[in-house]
Amino acid sequence: MLALLGAGGFRAGGLNFDAKVRRESFEPVDLFHAHIGGMDAFARGLKIADAIRKDGQLAAFVKERYASWDTGIGAKIEAGTLGLPELEAYMVRKGEANANVSGRQEMLENLINEFI
Fold it and tell me: Rounded distance, CA 3 to CA 13, Å?
């Protein structure tokens, strides 16, 4: 739902929604409840995604995490104006790659879980 809202909502197409009976649930009423549960989950997810976007913490983290793509060689890569020969020359001049920086996945999972 975050991706859906980030794209501005539906412009064409939709979501893949599938509900089917399984396990010991085989009566038509079971399929009815499966559809209700699925629709409710999508609706709840949409409300949660809206709250996450309004909060702004996730967006701020992503912006900071990928800031190197906004200027310099990162912006050129993203724009598609550099090929492998230019990237190779850049790294030969630069030498060592920058040290890895933690993606803070656990922190982000906790952030999302606050909204669930």
Answer: 14
